[in-house]
Amino acid sequence: MSTTTGVSGEEREDLTRAENQAVRARSRKLLIELLTPLRRRLALTLGVVIVSTALQVAGPALVAVGIDRGVPALGGGDPLPLLLAGGGFLAATVLGAVLIGWYRVLQARISQAVLYELRRRVFRHTQRLSLDFHESYTSGRIISRQTSDLDSIRELLDEGLGNLVSGVFYTAFTALALVLLDPISGLALAAAMLPLFVLVRWFQVRSQRAFRSTRTTSARMIVQFVETMTGIRAVQAFRKERANADRFGGLVEDNRRSNASVFRLFGTFDPGLVLIGNLTVAAVLLVGGIRVAEGGLAIGVLLAVLLYVRRFFDPLEELAMFYNGYQSASAALEKISGVLEEAPSVVDPAEPVPLRSPRGHVRFEGVEFAYRSGRVVLPRFDLELPAGQTVALVGATGAGKSTLAKLLSRFYDPTQGAVTLDGVDLRALSPADLRRAIVMVTQEAYLFSGSVADNIALGKPEATRAEIVAAATAVGADEFIRSLPHGYDTDVNKRGGRVSAGQRQLLSFARAFLADPVVLLLDEATASLDIPSERAVQDALQTLLSDRTAVIIAHRLSTVAIADRVLVMEAGRIVEDGTPAELIAGDGRFASLHAAWRDSLI
Amino acid sequence: MSATPGPERRKSIPRTMARLAPFVRPALPRLAGGIAVGIGAGLVALAIPQVLEVLVDSALADGDSSAVLPATLVILALGVVEAFAIMARRWLILAPNTHVESRMRNALYTHLQALPVAFHDRWPSGQLLSRAVHDISLIRRWLAFGVVLLVVNAVTVTVGAVLLIGISPLLGGVFLLSAIPVWLIAIRFERTYTKAARRSQDQAGDLATAVEESVHGIRVLKAFGRGGHALAKFERQAEELRGTEMEKARAVAFIWRWLSLLPDGTLAVCLVLGAVLAARGELSAGSLVAFFATATVLRFPIESIGFLLSFTVDARNSVDRFFEVLDEPVLIADPDEPRTLDAPRGRLEFRGVRFRYPDAPASARDLLDGIDLVVEPGETMAIVGLTGSGKSTLTALPPRLYEVTGGSITIDGVDIRELRLAELRRHVAMAFEDATLFSDTVRANVLLGAPDATDEALAEALSVAQAGFVHDLPHGVDTIIGEEGLSLSGGQRQRLALARAVAAKPAVLVLDDPLSALDVETEVLVEAALRRLLAATTALVIAHRPSTVMLADRVAVLEDGRITAVGTHSQLLAEHEHYRYVISSLETDDTSREEVPA
C-alpha cells in the first residue's frame, strides 16, 4: 500500500515525485468523473463562449471598415458601406451581449452541478466510512474538507474558470484578428511574447511558493480560532485570553506576511504586463504611423490594430489570478479525493441475506479483533447470547468492553471469525435490516439541531407524536420535556445547549426505546443520569429488555441488578461468566468489585 | 440565527462602510495616496488617445512621417508612466491593507474571547469562523480593489466623458446618454443581488452546520442507520443553496449582458454618426480615431461597474456580519474600581442569588430562585439535585462565566463583581463535566491556569487526578493532545480536566461531577487523593452519586431553584425526604431487588 493512499499523505509536504503523481492522478480522475455527465453542457458552453468572444473581437475591425471605406463612400454619396459596418457592429454587439449573458448562466450551472455532486459525494462517503476512520481522522478535518476546501473549488469554478475560458479565447481571437488585419503589426505582438513569457513564468514559480504559504498560515489560524471558540468556557475560567490573543496575533501576523508577499508579486506582475502592453503599442504606432504617412496603411486599420494590441493584454492579469485559484483548488481537490479514496473497513454486502422477524440470538464464533497496527484488542473467543438474555459487561477502562459492543453493532468487523445474529453473519445483513435489529446507545448522547421530538424520532422517522411521547414517558423524560419552553417542539440549539448531560442521555434512551430493536447495546448510557432518573430508566429497562437481547456496559454496578448474566472482562478476555448471584457469592474479581461498590453507596 | 438583522433595518452602503473607519484610519494616508496614483494612471491612459489625435491630424493626414517618432516617444513615455503609476498604486495599498485585515481579525478574536458564555451558547463556532476568515478577507480585498477601482474608475469615466464631448459634443453626448440606462440597470442589479447574496450566505452556514452535526453525531447516525436520512436532508439543503447561487448567477448574467451591450452599442451608433460627421468634414480623421481610442480606454471601467457593484454588496454584507458580532456588548466585564483580595481565605457566599437564561420564556420561573448558601474556608460543599435542577449553572456563577440576574456572590465578603475577572478566576478554578482539551501538550493543558507552575506541581496535580497514564504517552507530558493531536478516552479527558483545576491551586475549587466518566476502580483512587486535597481547600462539588457526596463536609440540596436544606450526608439522609429520593433511593431499591433469589 502506498503511503499516500487515502488521507495518509495529507499532512506531508515531502511527497516524492511518484507519490505526487499518484495524488494528482486520483484527483484528475475525480474531476473527469464529475465532468463526464456534463460533457454536452460543457460543449454547448464552449460553443457559446467562442462565438460570443469572436463577436466581441469583431468590433475594432468593423470600426476600421467604417472609417476606411464608409467615410469615403459616404463622401461619394454611397451610405451603404457605412451602414453595413455600423449595422454589423451593432448586430455583433447585441448578439455578443446576449451570448455572454447566456454563457454566464451556463457556466454557473456547470459549476453548481459540480459543487453539488462533490458536496454530496463527500457527505455520503464520510457517512459510509467506518468508525475507525472517524476515530483517527478528526472531525475538524472532515469539516474543513466540506467547507474551506469546497470554497476554494467554488471560487475557482465561479470566478476563475469563467474568466479563464473567455480570457483565453479573447486573447487568441484578438491575436488572430491582428494578424489578419495587419501581419506586420502582428510581428510586433509576436516580439512582445518573449518578455511576456518570462514575466508569466517568473510569476508562476514565485507565486506557487507564496500561495502555499498563505494556505498553511491560514489553516493554522483557523485551528486556533475554532479551538478557542469551542472551548470558550475553559478559556475564560482559566484566564487564557491574553495568552491566546498573543498566539492568535502571531498566527495572524504570519498569515499577513504571506499575503503581503503574494501582493508584492502582483505589485510587480500587473504593472509589468501594462508596461509590456504599452511598449508594444508604441512599437506598433511607430511602424504603423510611418506606413500610414507613406500611404502603405489605412488610418482605420492602424486604429483597429492599436485597439487590438491594447485589448490583448487586458485579460492576462485575470489569467494570473486564475493560477492562484487553480493552485488552491487543486490542493483542495487532492485532499477531497483522498477522503473519497478511503475505503470503508465495514462494507455493505452486495447481496444481503434478508432477516425476517429476528429473535435476537447472538453468537461470537472464533472472533478476534486487532487494530490496523496489528495490536490485538480481543484475542480469539467464542460467546453465545441466547435470545432475550440481558448481559452486563463489567471491567476496567480498556478491558475491551466497548470493542466487544462495537463488534456486535458492526461499527467494526472482527479480524477473525464472525458475529452472527440468528445464525446470519452480520456482514451479510443489509444496513437497514442490521440497524433495525441492533441498536447501540452510547455515553455521548449527541443531539442534532431541531426539536426534541425530531431528536427522539431519529429512532423511527415515521413515528407519530403519540409514539414519541410514549417513548419519552417510558424512560422518564416526559416530565422535563414538558417543562421546556415549547415542550416537545423546543429547539435544542448548539449541540444540545441548554439540555443537561443527563437529560441528553434520557433523550437518547427514548430514541432507542422508539427504535424497538431485538438487540439493544448500552455503552455507558447511564453515566450522567441522576439517581432517580437512573432508577426510572432501570424500571423502563426491565420491561424494555424482557423480550429482547441486551448488552449493558456500565461503570456503576447498579445496572447489574437487572442482568441475567454478568461477563467480567480483563485485558480483552472474558475472565468470569455467570449470574450476578453466582458471581457475588464467589471470590472472583466481580465479588470484590461488587463489595467495593456496595461500600461506596454508604 | 436570531441575531441576523432583517434587511429592512439595513443601513445604506456608505454608512455601513463608514463603520470600518477605526480600522482603516491608520492606513488612510497611503490608501488615499494609492487612489491618487490610480487616478493618475487612469488619466495617463486617457492622454494617449489625445496624442494620437494630434499625430493623425497634423502628420499622417499630410503624409509627414517625421512627426511619427516624437509622437511615439510621447506615447511611450506616457505608457511607462502609466505602468509605474499602477505599480505605485499597488505598492502603496499593499502593506496598510494587510494590516487593516490583521487589526480586524485580532479585534474580533479578542472581542469573542471577552463575550460571555451565554453568547457562545447561541453562536455555532462555524458562523464565527466564517466571519473571522471569509468576511474579513473579503473586506480587505474590497478595500484594496473595490474602493480604489470605484473611485479611480468614476474619475476616469467622468474625465473620459468630458474628453469625448471635447472631441465631438454630439458623439460625446450620445455616449453620455448611454450612462442613464447603465445606472438604472446597476440599481436593479444591486437590489436583486443583495437579497440573493444574503440568503446564500445563510444557506451556506446552515449547510456547514449540517456537515458539522453529521460528523459529530456520526455514532448516533450509524447506530440507528440514519445516514441515508441525514444525506437526504443534506441534499435538500445543498439543492436550496444551488438554487440561490443560480439566482445570483442570473443576476450577474443580467448585468454583464447590459454592461457589454450598452458601451459597444453606443460605439456602433457613434461609428455611423462619426462617419457622417467626418464625411461632411465636421470631424477630422484624428478626432474620430481619438474618439474610438478614448472610448476603448473607458470600456473596462464601465464594464467593471457590474463586478464592482456585486463586490460592494458582498463587502457590505460582510461588514454587517462582522459588526453583528463586534457590536455584541461584553456584559461580563471588569469593574471600574476593582478591589483586590490579597490572601483569600475562600469563604464563598451566595446571597439571594437568582439566575435565568436570557432566552428563557417570560412565563418561566427563574432557574435559580433565591439561592442562599455559605461555604466556609476549607470546607467542601456538595450540591445535590435532580438533573436539570440548575446545578451546573450554579457552579458557572462564581467564576462569572454567567452573571447572576439577582442577588450576589461574595468571596471573603467581597462581591465577585468588584474583582477584576482575571483575579476572580485566579481565585476560582473549575473542572467541567465535559472536559475541553486544547491542541497542545499535556503539560500546557494541565497548567492552563498556572503556566508558571513547577514540574513538581504538575506531577502532584496529575497524581491527585490519577492521570499517571500520561507517562505512557509517546512523549509523556510533552505529547500533543486535542483536536490536532492524540485523542484520549472520556475518562482520561476528565482526569486531565480535574488535574487542571487542581494545578491552578485556587482559593475556591469548583468541580462539576468530576468522577462521572471514571470506572469504579479509578474512581476509588481519585476519591482518596481528592479527599486529602479537599481537606484544605474551599470547594463546591456537584454530586450525582453517594461516593462523590462523601468527599464533602456538608451537602446542600438544590430543589426548585432553591437550597432547601444543608447538612451532613447522614443528617439529610435521616431527615430530608427529597434528599433520600435524589441520592439514595437506588440503594434501598437495589437491596430489595437483591433479596429476590436469583
Domains of chain B, number = 2
| Ends distance of chain B | 55 Å
- Looking at the overall shape, the CATH architecture of the largest domain in chain B is Up-down Bundle
Strand order of the largest sheet of chain B: 6-9-10-3-11-12
Overall spatial form of chain A? elongated
Indicate the multimeric state.
heterodimer
Please write the string of helix (H) and strand (E) elements of chain A: HHHHHHHHHHEEEHEEHEHHHHHEHEEEHH
Give the integer mean of the pLDDT values of chain A. Answer: 86
The value of Rg of chain A in angstroms is 35 Å
Helix content of chain B: 55-70%
Beta fraction of chain A:
5-15%
Uncertain segments of chain A of ≥5 residues (pLDDT<50)? none
Tell me what portion of residues of chain B adopts beta-strand conformation: 5-15%
What is the CATH C level class of the largest domain in chain B, in words? Answer: Mainly Alpha
Q: Could you say what the CATH topology of the largest domain in chain B is called? A: ABC transporter transmembrane region fold
- Rg from alpha-carbon coordinates of chain B: 35 Å
Supply the CATH class of the largest domain in chain A. Answer: Mainly Alpha
CATH superfamily of the largest domain in chain A: ABC transporter type 1, transmembrane domain
What would you say this structure looks like, in words?
The complex is a heterodimer of chains A (602) and B (598). Chain A has helices at 17-35, 39-75, 80-128, 131-136, 139-181, 183-230, 232-237, 241-293, 299-313, 316-341, 401-408, 431-437, 452-457, 465-474, 478-483, 493-496, 501-515, 531-545, 580-585, 589-600; strands spanning 362-370, 376-385, 390-394, 416-421, 424-425, 438-441, 519-523, 549-553, 565-570, 573-578. With 602 residues, chain A is of the alpha/beta class. Chain A has a six-stranded mixed β-sheet, sandwiched between helices. A four-stranded antiparallel β-sheet of chain A has the order 2-1-4-5, with helices on one face. With 598 residues, chain B is α/β, with parallel strands linked by helices. Chain B has two domains: 23-326, Up-down Bundle (ABC transporter transmembrane region fold); 349-595, P-loop containing nucleotide triphosphate hydrolases (Rossmann fold, 3-Layer(aba) Sandwich), CATH 3.40.50.300. Helix content of chain B is 62%, strand content 10%. Chain B contains 20 helices and twelve strands. Chain B has helices spanning 13-18, 21-24, 28-58, 68-114, 117-122, 125-167, 169-177, 179-216, 218-223, 227-279, 285-326, 391-396, 421-427, 442-446, 455-464, 490-503, 520-534, 546-549, 569-575, 577-595, and strands at 348-355, 368-375, 380-384, 406-411, 414-415, 428-431, 440-441, 480-481, 508-512, 538-542, 554-559, 562-567. In chain B, the strands form three sheets. Chain B has a six-stranded mixed β-sheet with strand order 6-9-10-3-11-12. Chain B has a four-stranded antiparallel β-sheet with strand order 2-1-4-5, with no helix packed on it. Chain B has a two-stranded antiparallel sheet with strand order 7-8. In chain B, helix 17 links the parallel strand 9 (508-512) and strand 10. The two termini of chain B are 55 Å apart. The chains are: A alpha/beta (602), B alpha/beta (598). At the A-B interface, helix 2, helix 3, helix 4, helix 5 and helix 6 of A face helix 3, helix 4, helix 5, helix 6 and helix 8 of B.
